[in-house]
TrEMBL record:
FAD-binding domain ranges (all copies): 2-325
Domain of life: Bacteria
Entry-linked SUPFAM superfamilies: FAD/NAD(P)-binding domain
Name this protein carries in UniProt: FAD-dependent oxidoreductase
């Protein structure tokens, strides 16, 4: 049985390894010139690590990751809104790994079957029967896995009436600083703006920031970040000072409205192509990893691709759409800018018991293969 995987990101490469381990002949088509990512860190929550463990890759990730958890949420001045008991979080759900995206891409690329990765191939159209039209010609497969992101050409080909991505109402910056010590990873909330940071294994710090803005608003990069966040609590100003001008990535945040199905005939949507979500729970890549492992397992346990894809849709769509809704709600609250609303939000966060935090995470982090 042959599978063509469209997209060589985290979800696509994980799907390639998972399917190959189940005996599938796989081919990954990636439009970029090489299989790599730059400029950003990635949090792999315990559910994602369990997915990687199922493929025998969890330990390789842990060796190149910093095992830690975010300490909580602070205000722009530095006072605590909520404090995370990281030991209790680990006891309940397992450890979290902070890794650079390029590192996990390296590990997943190395795990994929030799000769299966084809870079520089642009897909133009995909048909439900498994026909793929691309710059190198036409290919056919028993299964096509669409792992080609939020603007998926596969989704547009097979589901032309599916909803388009929607703007979440805020824009974001991502960057990795020069190596510098920080005490702990934190996210800080202001009025319509947020900043977060976490240490990477090599001593550099992954930082991100958001600000409510009209879609398509241009940015002056580091200069704008200093203007917006330069007077926030330490180490935020120091982190900006440790960032090179060309290290700042800027993009608007979009999410995909709920789809009515993730499958059609021989096609399966995976990761952002199926359920692109806002980054507020750090679950985008984690859910793509889950998708890949579940899809491969169901295909291995079924006597037909059609029945396995039906089970995949039944297993993955409710879960991923639930997580996407939760991430969207958190982002909306985090971006509140009205002074009275922010005062009420901050007071509620300070009064919320720790048990409510763990209950909210349990449906997400307790997942296992």
């Amino acid at each position: 049985m042959k599978a063509i995987i469209i997209g060589g990101g985290i979800g696509g490469l994980c799907a390639a390894t998972a399917l190959a381990q189940r005996g599938w002949d796989v081919e990954v088509l990636e439009r970029a010139a090489q299989f790599t990512e730059v400029g950003a860190g990635l949090s792999l929550w315990p559910n994602a690590l369990r997915a990687l463990d199922a493929l025998g890759l969890g330990d390789s990730i842990r060796e190149r990751a910093l095992m830690s958890a975010q300490a909580g949420i602070r205000t722009a001045s530095g006072s605590w809104l909520s404090r995370t008991d990281t030991d209790e979080l680990e006891r309940r759900f397992g450890r979290l790994a902070m890794v650079h995206r390029a590192d996990i891409l390296d590990i997943l690329s190395a795990a994929a079957p030799s000769g299966s990765l084809r870079a520089g191939v642009t897909v133009h159209e995909v048909q439900p029967d498994g026909t793929v039209l691309h710059t190198d010609g036409v290919s056919t497969a028993d299964l096509v896995v669409a792992a080609d992101g939020i603007h998926s050409i596969v989704r547009r080909s097979v589901w032309p009436d599916a909803p388009s991505p929607r703007y979440a109402g805020y824009t974001a910056w991502r960057m990795v600083t020069e190596p510098m010590p920080i005490d702990e990873g934190v996210e800080s909330w202001g009025r319509g703006q947020r900043v977060g940071y976490a240490q990477l294994p090599d001593g550099r710090v992954y930082c991100y920031a958001t600000a409510s803005a009209p879609e398509g608003t241009s940015s002056t990069g580091l200069a704008e970040l200093r203007q917006r966040f330069g007077d926030w609590h330490e180490p935020i100003p120091a982190l900006l000072d440790a960032t090179a001008d060309d290290a700042v990535l800027h993009h608007d945040i979009h999410a995909l409205p709920p789809l009515t199905t993730y499958v059609s005939d021989k096609i399966a949507l995976l990761g952002d192509a199926a359920h692109a979500m806002t980054p507020n729970l750090g679950q985008g890549a984690c859910q793509a990893l889950e998708d890949a492992v579940v899809l491969a397992g169901l295909l291995a346990g079924s006597d037909s691709v059609a029945s396995a894809l039906k089970e995949y849709d039944h297993a993955r769509r409710p879960r991923t759409q639930m997580i996407a809704r939760s991430a969207d709600r958190i982002g909306s609250v985090g971006q509140w800018s009205s002074p009275p609303a922010v005062v009420l939000r901050n007071a509620a966060m300070r009064l919320a018991p720790a048990s409510s935090f763990y209950r909210s995470l349990a449906p997400i982090l307790n997942w296992s293969v």
